[in-house]
Amino acid sequence: MIYCIGMFVLGVVALTARGLYFDIFRLTEWGSVFVFLPAALLLFWVERWQQKQDAAFNGSGTGYTSRLSDRQSTGIKQIYRADTVVGSYRRTFKQVWHRWFVAFPKVENFFLNLVFDLSQRELRFEEKTGQRLWSNQTEWTIEEGGETVGDIKTENTVLHAVEFTEVLRMTYRGETYQIRSPRLSRRIEVRRDKKTIAASHRKRHLLTFDVPDLETQAVLLAGMILFRLHFRE
Fold first, then answer.
1. Over its length of 233 residues, how does the chain's per-residue pLDDT go in tens digits?
2. Which of 179, 169, 117, 168 lies closest to 144 in space, CA to CA?
3. Which of 5, 41, 203, 215 sits a CA distance of 20 to 30 A from 118?
4. Other Cβ atoms within 10 Å of 55 Cβ, number
């Protein structure tokens, strides 16, 4: 919706400026610009419908599940174990214009900050600022109980590029994990000491998780959700 409104405003400004300076006015061009308004209304309805679908989700199957169709708003999304709510998460923005910016295509994973409420614990993934201006490296701090307990960052290597694999490296309370997925797959794996300890699948908007009942269960779930949002999986 915001993208269409932005294109409408840019179109009006451009056509008005051209008309004032060059005295050129074409009705068909103005008509094309005004098409963005009904398109914005349609997209607004779609976004609201996606948010309502996410909010109405009440679990599926016997494992951990969540529904992720709306990726840009700050709406709360629930995490279920069977039909019982075990936690929630939401996206946050530090500046209002960040929310507008991510509405444009291909940049929805910018300014990605997440707050998780899992197992009566609050985890915050805060993206470090300024990195994307000079490199393709993205890094987040992991905060719990008001203190920094780890970090998570993109791992870009030649080997990963050859294997067409996307990877995040996560450090949490002294332990290191690798969250990875082939680019042509919807499966995510979490590895520790080269052993897979957790996984996630996606079928359309439904996310399923296979996570052991460990003390680190909350951060493993959170890391896989961050992975999906960052790599637009």
1. 565 566 656 656 665 666 666 666 776 765 666 665 666 576 666 777 777 888 778 887 778 999 998 888 888 999 999 889 999 999 999 998 898 888 777 888 899 999 999 878 899 999 988 665 556 789 999 999 889 999 999 988 877 877 889 999 999 999 999 999 988 788 999 999 989 999 999 998 999 999 987 778 899 999 999 999 999 88
2. 117
3. 203
4. 14
